[in-house]
Amino acid sequence: MAALLGSTFPGEVGLRLLLSPFGSNIVTRTACCTVGIGLPVFSTFKAIEEKNRVEQERWLLYWAAYGSFSLVEVFSDKILYWFPFYYHMKFAFLVWLQLPSGNGSKHLYVRHLRPFLLKHQARIDQLLRFTSTETMKIIMAHQGEIQFVKAVLERCATTTKLIVKEFTHPLQSQGRNTTESSDGPTSPTRLQIREADPDADN
């Protein structure tokens, strides 16, 4: 009995924190991020690795529904944020999208997303082609600046790597410097000894 209570206690506390009307937005937003992104990413990974076509289609539909919801949320989040229980409702919506019994993502795709995209597919394709063309024009027009920024970033990355290496392996750097100094031009060579003392070989 004690073991059973010990195993259910953390889950019960977490559920109460999540569903509490006075719960912090940090708790509910973390739960939304975990349920909405973290778990689906891992489930998608498993579906791909196991080559499960049914699961792949299921999670593909989920990402289409979730992406559409995220686009809407970008423009409405600043307003909806002030509504009470907004993140609680978002959490419930994300769970509904994923549950196999509710099949929410497929319902949302078939009923709303697919008809909208079919209706506006030509315009969206035209907009994407225009955006791609204009982006390539900007890149070609500013090729010099882009190469300069790339070179600066590469140099900064190299410098940062050297600094980090000096901090993480100071003994190796000191050992290398000591070796270089002992083998360098400061150590006398046989020719220098011979010139200083001609009878040294005798």
Automatic annotation (TrEMBL):
Primary localization class, coarse: membrane
Annotated protein name in UniProt: HVA22-like protein
Membrane topology annotation: Multi-pass membrane protein
Composition bias type Basic and acidic residues, residue spans: 192-202
GO CC annotations, alphabetized: membrane
Stretches the record annotates as Disordered: 173-202
Organism in which the protein naturally occurs: Iris pallida
Biased composition (Polar residues): 173-190
Location within or outside the cell: Membrane
Pfam families: TB2_DP1_HVA22 (PF03134)
UniProt similarity note: Belongs to the DP1 family.
